[in-house]
Amino acid sequence: MTSGFVRHRRSKRVIATFPVFEADLLRSLAGQLVELLHNESAVVRTEMDPLEALLDFSGPTTEPDDPVLQRLFPSAYRDDDEAAGEFRRYTEGTLRDGKARAAAAIIDALEEAGLPPEPDEDITIDVELDDELALTWLRSLTDLRLAFGTRLGVEEGDEDFWESLPDEDPRAQAHHVYDWLGFLQETLVRSVR
User: Fold this and answer.
1) Helices marked H in the chain — which ranges?
2) Distance (Å, rounded) from C-alpha 128 to C-alpha 81?
3) Is 75 helix (H, G, I), strand (E, B) or coil?
4) Are 63 and 88 in contact, with CB atoms under 8 Å apart?
5) pLDDT tens-digit profile of 49-101?
6) Is residue 99 part of a domain?
7) Which domain holds residue 35?
8) Of 17, 189, 33, whose CA–CA distance to 113 is shortest?
9) Which one, of 26, 96, 29, 104, lies nearest residue 60 by Cα?
10) Roughly what angle, to the nearest 10 degrees, separates helices 20-38 and 170-192?
11) Is 101 exposed, middle or buried (0-12, 13-18, 19+ CB in 10 A)?
12) Around Cβ 111, how many Cβ atoms within 10 Å?
């Protein structure tokens, strides 16, 4: 298991060593997040002229159906549907695109560190992040953890429930991944201070 992120004294970069199976899991989770973000009509069309895309405010005006997307893109005005719709129309496409780019940055960094397309070896890879990329990872780890927590139905103060599940329960295994994402997030926060 990875020991988390640490700041290297000489290079000042943030470094983590991942067993290949953990790196592959993280790549898979980031890929699933990108897919979820792009499988909705709110995605900014990439074939547009750049100026046209900049001036395009034809984004969605209603809350997404998927609970994870609702959590990632909450309503800005809970008591005013019209204002919430207008805010969403101007912002959600750009926000989705930014979240997808951040998740893709995780995938790119893992692959640049040597994660093979089909990992089957018992190897480790060292991921080195400059400060800007570390903040991008931090944003995406937050999104991944929110997505996982939403799918699992994690609530504040429900630790006893998760600890009571037997290890072979798929929910317990998924909750271990949720905790692991939190661990990565916590060590990354400490490393970028």
Assistant:
1) 20-38, 50-55, 67-72, 81-112, 131-152, 159-164, 170-192
2) 44
3) coil
4) yes
5) 665 555 555 566 778 889 999 999 998 888 888 888 888 888 888 899 999 99
6) yes
7) 6-192
8) 17
9) 96
10) 90
11) middle
12) 14
Distances (CA, A) of 99 to 9, 23, 128: 30, 19, 21
* DSSP notation for 90-135: HHHHHHHHHHHHHHHHHHHHHHHTT--SS--S--EEEEEE-HHHHH
Q: Which two tokens stand for residue 158?
A: 């429900």
CA 108 to chain centre: 14
* Gap between the Cα atoms of 25 and 16, Å rounded: 15
Per the document, the length of the chain is 193
Query: Which residues does 15 contact at the CB level (< 8 Å), separation at least 6?
Result: 5, 6, 7, 8, 126, 127, 128, 129
The candidate with the shortest Cα–Cα distance to 175, out of 149, 156, 157, 193, is 149
β-pair partners for 125? 18
In a domain, 152, yes or no: yes
- Secondary structure element (H or E) that encloses residue 15, with its range: strand 14-19
For the whole model, what pTM was predicted?
A: 0.86
1 domain residue, yes or no: no
Q: For the segment 18-29, what is each residue's pLDDT rounded down to a tens digit?
A: 999 999 999 999
The domain tally of the chain equals 1
